[in-house]
Design goal:
394 residues, alpha+beta, TATA-Binding Protein, elongated
């Protein structure tokens, strides 16, 4: 289970008068009888940011607090997922209370956070391992059509990208988690510690960005009636229901295609030159099996030209831009099944990546043994040939 960003309102908590100078402030008067005073402050906590807003309106007073990443608050990174719901929930409550008290709030009970707080924003998230190259999967997901949702596809400088389905209040985002982690020193450490290099990690996030989205429209659709307290929403069962609900909608809205054989696949490539057709087909198959980076390295190695690197880039760019009619289901069906299974089982991503790395290490050991045995065989044959030559001379 993973809840990433949260924004909650804690009622009946005061900000000390002498602490108000440390906040930016503003006064609003929407009606003659109503004056609203707001005090703003952003603070850095652990590896995440907390936005604090204290509001007084006539006799009402409350704190709004938005924490950019709960996993960063708990573990220092947003790749690791919650292991123990109860223990982690207690830590989040303690740390959230500490942030408020350290920034001028009058001391209050932890129970006030648990029972007398309401959500204004919540992002549910899960990291998923897939066999298919993440960038190809994101391109395929962007073809889904959900009524009333806009679709956007964003590409970043680091080579990663993001596919988003969004309305004013709800957003479903998919992106390349390893590419995102590689942007920072801390992220690179996470990649090294968890052996994520070369793995296809797809991140799914369901973002409820307004109070209306949380209480009225969406959370109550998942066979659960929600009052929206902290203890209700910080729940593994709810996270699972929300993610499966939106994933099933996206999966249903993906274009339906019929499975085809290899000849039909070649025929559907929009190239008149037969050599280019075969080149594009080979590049797509490589990307699907060993990823974009692996495919580029392989194409660079087998090319004899001085411009091998640029040639590989050109081939891959042309292949990935190809619009195939019936290839999608064949190439992505395995990864869709993997997403289904992981959302259903809801296991920690760390366990899954450990198993994948064990299999990879076994394969590499077997390959190394084969290389060693081949080298030994070559040495033996050389020795035999040398001995034969000596015997013939004698």
């Amino acid at each position: 289970m993973m809840i990433d960003t949260i924004a909650i309102r804690v009622n009946n908590v005061f900000l000390k008068t002498d602490e108000r100078k440390k906040y930016k402030s503003g006064t609003y008067k929407p009606y003659n009888y109503l004056t609203i005073n707001k005090f703003y402050k952003n603070v850095k906590v652990e590896n995440c940011t907390a936005k604090l807003t204290y509001v007084t309106a006539n006799r009402r007073h409350y704190f709004d607090i938005e924490i950019s990443s709960i996993p960063k608050l708990l573990y220092g990174n947003n790749f690791q997922e919650t292991k123990n719901y109860y223990a982690d929930f207690q830590k989040v409550v303690t740390k959230t209370r500490r942030i408020l008290v350290d920034n001028g709030a009058v001391a209050f009970s932890k129970n006030l956070l648990k029972s007398n707080s309401s959500f204004r924003k919540v992002h549910f998230a899960k990291n998923l391992y897939i066999s298919c190259d993440v960038e190809l999967m994101l391109e395929y997901l962007s073809k889904a059509h959900i009524p009333r949702f806009d679709v956007s596809r964003t590409t970043y400088r680091n080579g990663g990208s993001c596919t988003r389905f969004h309305t004013k209040s709800v957003e479903i985002a998919f992106y390349n988690k390893v590419a995102e982690l590689s942007n920072s020193i801390d992220g690179k450490k996470v990649i090294a510690d968890n052996q994520l290099s070369g793995l296809n990690i797809l991140r799914i996030e369901v973002r409820y960005n307004t109070k209306k989205a949380i209480y009225e429209n969406n959370l109550n659709l998942h066979d659960t009636t929600i009052n929206g307290t902290f203890s209700e929403i910080f729940s593994k069962e709810l996270s699972k229901k929300v993610l499966i609900y939106w994933w099933s909608i996206i999966k249903k809205s993906l274009p339906k295609t019929e499975k085809n054989n290899f000849c039909e696949f070649i025929d559907n490539i929009d190239e008149t030159d037969i050599h280019r057709k075969l080149e594009t087909a080979g590049a797509l198959i490589l990307v699907n099996n060993i990823g974009k980076t692996g495919a580029k390295n392989f194409l660079t190695q087998i090319s004899n030209k001085k411009t091998a690197d640029r040639t590989a880039d050109k081939i891959l760019k042309r292949a990935l831009a190809t619009n195939l009619k019936n290839f999608d289901e064949n190439i992505y069906s395995k990864s869709i099944s993997e997403i289904d299974m992981q959302l259903e089982n809801f296991e920690e991503i760390q366990k899954i990546t450990k198993e994948v790395n064990k299999k990879r290490n076994k394969k590499s050991k077997v390959a190394d043994k084969k290389k060693v045995s081949k080298q030994k065989l070559k040495l033996v044959t050389r020795l035999i040939s040398v001995l034969k030559c000596k015997m013939e001379k004698n």
